[in-house]
Amino acid sequence: xxFLHPETDAGNLxxxxxxxxxxxxxxxxxSVEEKPEELYAVEFxxxxxxxxxxxxxxxxxxxxxxxxxxLVPGFNDSHMHxxxxxxxxxxxxxxxxxxxxxxxxxxxxxxxxxxxxxxxxGKGFNDAGFxxxxxxLTAEDLNDIQGNAYIYLIHEDGHECVISENALDLLKExxxxxxxxxxxxxxxxxxxxxxxxxxxxxxxxxHRFWGRGKEEAKNAIKAALPRLSSxxxxxxxxxxxxxxxxxxxxxxxxxxxxxxxxxPIDVQLHHYAFHKDDITEFVEKESMRTGxxxxxxxxxxxxxxxDGTQRLHTASMRNPxxxxxxxxxxxxxxxxxxxxxxxxxxxxxxQVAMHxxxxxxxxxxxEALEQEEACTKDLRHRVIHAQTLAPDLIExxxxxxxxxxxxxxxxxxxxxxxxxxxxxxxVPFSDPYKSMREAEIPLTLSSDLPIGSIxxxxxxxxxxxxxxxxxxxxxxxxxxxxxxxDESFYGMGHAPAYLEFKEYRKGKxxxxxxxxxxxxxxxxxxxxxxxxxDIKVTETWHKGIQTYATSE
Length: 552
Prior knowledge:
InterPro entries: Amidohydro_3, Metal-dep_hydrolase_composite, Metal_Hydrolase, YtcJ-like. By secondary structure, the protein is an alpha/beta fold. Helix content is 29%, strand content 21%. The protein has helices spanning 10-13, 82-90, 100-111, 165-172, 199-209, 214-230, 247-259, 276-285, 335-347, 359-369, 376-379, 391-400, 411-414, 418-421, 433-438, 456-465, 485-491, 494-499; strands at residues 2-4, 19-27, 40-45, 48-54, 62-65, 70-73, 75-80, 119-125, 150-155, 160-163, 185-187, 193-198, 233-238, 266-272, 297-305, 352-356, 382-385, 403-406, 443-445, 517-520, 537-542, 545-549. The strands form three sheets. Strands 1, 2, 3, 4, 5, 6, 20, 21 and 22 form a nine-stranded mixed β-sheet that branches. An eight-stranded parallel β-sheet has the order 7-13-14-15-16-17-18-19. The protein has a five-stranded mixed β-sheet with strand order 8-9-10-12-11. A hairpin with a 2-residue loop joins strand 3 (40-45) and strand 4. The two termini are 27 Å apart.
């Protein structure tokens, strides 16, 4: 047999080699009988795993020594915004600005020349922490950057933006903008829009003002991909349409990267819809439906936003916010509208993914999914976030057969704020992962990148401990809702494969499954829970090709 050292570039050396073996590895995957102390050899041929043998391997073929490291299925992040993350890497990133003055200087340096009538884009500002500003930025403030420019700046969490007065004038000409609820538009004391917008209004502005060309999108995606591979991510479900404007252009960008050999992951592309007309347009223009596409790029779900976010008090709650008793958060649509959109999508073989953070929005999502015509069990519709629940909602979600996409890394910065946002009696039902699992609700773990952590081990570690990166609070926040290590790995591996209808192809180290796997430097079941976040990826393989290897 031919032996290769693991530090060599196996992906290049083995081009043309169809049969390959990684020997001397320990295998970990949830609820499977491999013993942690046992060593195995994994054989794969082309894109798929052919067999798993006891180690040492006795046959012929190209063999890589796994050095007793731990082999796990590749991570599948079921909720992110990959194009937006890539644009952060490629374009003006304002996350480090500590003041308005510093942000202005960053913009001037990035654009070199500021001219009248030009477009200025920036992402990631957080004016709540600006040392020289005591209130949120408005359109009037942006005159200090360039008085006659079209400026569009997105907040760090992606749920707020501020635009300049010129851009505001353009927005006023958009008739469709009148359909966006007033709750997402800030106004001054005279009743005029002040250039500050929230949630679904932000998505509308992205879609209208910031659509990239195909080549620009491809370059941004390519910039992000090495980072995903370095964390063991081999599959993603992503909502990118708002940042490119056209689903057809988005699909073309990804499939061209695939054809060029520059897409080391599988991708499901969601279609964000503002209202039923957007779904109708997609159905009439596109012949593809959920699951259709190429070997690596497929159509995902119709994405609907039912409410906003708790930080802005725009997540729709059944009770008022404790820190803002006058607010309970708006619903973007009526129940009739949501029911109709879900039915129409289902009738046209499209899965639906609904953003619903507050319990009132979750209730609206569940009512739509309970319709017989929704075909929820067959189409595997999903509720995204579901951060505030109650016993009745957990029971109804379970009965509906819907999936829930969770983002445990949100707890890193939010666990100590929940009592401000949620009535006291519902705090125990905030991010109730264990309660949902006990109710047999299928869960996926995900990042919501770039909002949450890109690192799946941080996501998994947070789900298991319910602590932040400083190991607070002691014992974990609402510790009853901790997931086990097995449950957490399942949520970032095999569970998302069900949403792609590929549960017999992805998410396991088993014959017939894609050769998507990761080598870890520690065994998750032998690692203290508070140290799970420190486990490192040493190699990543996608469809039998090495896409990342540590230099250490």
